[in-house]
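General statements about sequence and structure are easier to judge against a single worked case. Part of our work consisted of pairing the sequence of a single chain with a tokenised description of its backbone. The amino acid sequence and the backbone structure tokens for this protein are reproduced below.

***
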Amino acid sequence: ALITSLFLQRRYQQALETYQSTAQLLYQTLGIQPSQSMQALYQLIHQEIYGEEAPHKQIDDELNYDTEINGAYLCDYTTFKEIYKVQARILNRLQVPAYYCLIHIKGQTIRERNDDTVINDASIKVEQALKLGLRRGDILSKITQNQWIVMLMNCDHRNAILVMNRVLRKLRYSLHRFGITLEVEAHKVEPK
């Protein structure tokens, strides 16, 4: 409602900034992307700010990112699926192996206590461990509160499991005392 109100008041830049902070908040707290209607509103705001065609400088600014950032690229699951489709095609053409790994947060404690704070804390720790422990070219996303997915480029099955075990080793140890385990499965990236 706030973004729509700003848009209708022709406060486009403020509407854009509010959209961006709201989208980030939705992903960080709930792991979801904005609704389709909210994304459509974003397109209208973008069009009002930049007109029918965005200037080259603006496109260039949007495409560039901070090259100093280390660790895996974190994105929402919808974006991950689109990246996966493109990468699968590229990797297939180049004959480069890649695997995606599913990380499951499990444990009797979670089911018994039905405690969202335990799941939230574990999920935050998994995100931090994966984001910092993986390479810049790896892609990371949260599917659900207790399930993550990682795409590892130029990696075979054995190395995918080794990488995930190395990255999650310390975290597994600290979560074990709360009755929480992390299960990892690796699957080959293949175009469908």
